Amino acid sequence: MPLGFHLSISRGLSWALKKAEELGCDILQIFSRNPRGWRRGEISEGEAERFREDLMNSSISTLILHTSYLTNLATSDEEIYRLSIGAIKEDMERALMIGGQMVVTHIGSTKGGSRSRGISRVVKALEEIGRSMDGEVRLLLENSSGSGYHVGWSVEEIGEILRPFRGNGSIGFCLDTCHAFAAGYPIHEEGGLSRLLEGIQSSIGMERLHLLHLNDSKGDLGSRVDRHEHIGRGRIGTRGFRIILNHPLLRELPMILETPRKSDEDDRRNMRVVRRLMKGGVLR
Length: 284
Ligand SMILES: [Zn+2]
Ligand SMILES: [Zn+2]
Hints:
Bound molecules: zinc ion
CATH topology: TIM Barrel
Low-confidence stretches: none
Strand order of the largest sheet: 1-2-3-4-5-6-7-10
Mean pLDDT: 95
Number of helices: 9
Number of strands: 10
CATH architecture: Alpha-Beta Barrel
Structural class: alpha/beta
Helix content: 25-40%
Number of domains: 1
Largest sheet: 8 strands, parallel, barrel
Shape: globular
Strand content: 15-25%
Radius of gyration: 18 Å
């Protein structure tokens, strides 16, 4: 099971790559740009080429880019909608340029508008983005916690969005454990996890699930609160993560931790906990 962290690129791409190796990551996720803005740092073709080479010579097998948090494909605000589509297109290009294989995006919020209109806006946006994609980089939609009119908290909703793209392997799904739990899926129990996975199978297709975001949840089951916690220290807990990490349908998937980090030690501890739980080991 390829495992890694989401790391900051505030000190540059090469720093993030080195840090990921230092932390023992197999894979790495980074922001494509300032996560709270639209601006994106420029990378020259030369820099990109050097980075691709470093990446190839590193122990990191998969590089994932995460789009800005401002991205909203469900909005009825035309300006935000255009900016979002443009930013995702740019991020797909950026991924190709620096050797990234996947781009993960939040879907967006209707901000109180009609849900069905929101969903059809998302589909139209994906159709447009899809036309400029060359198939080398995969775009993944991430499930939301359902807070603030966010679309895509349920597998049925994501299934509805992805249905027109059946057979198109370049658009897929990323499952965030904190978001699913906060949205009301009791994935900390075997039965609840199985029901979610059956839902993914019937509404989305398991073959479209390409990535797990592994986060414990500060918020309760169904709280719709999107606050990540250290693995085992939140409401999903070590028992819950042992079930999730050892599930035969999940255990081979690439997994990215987006857990809180004050220091490297936080990351090292979360990594240790995950590796131990995967082996079915007992903690402490
Ligand atoms: Zn996530
Ligand atoms: Zn989150």
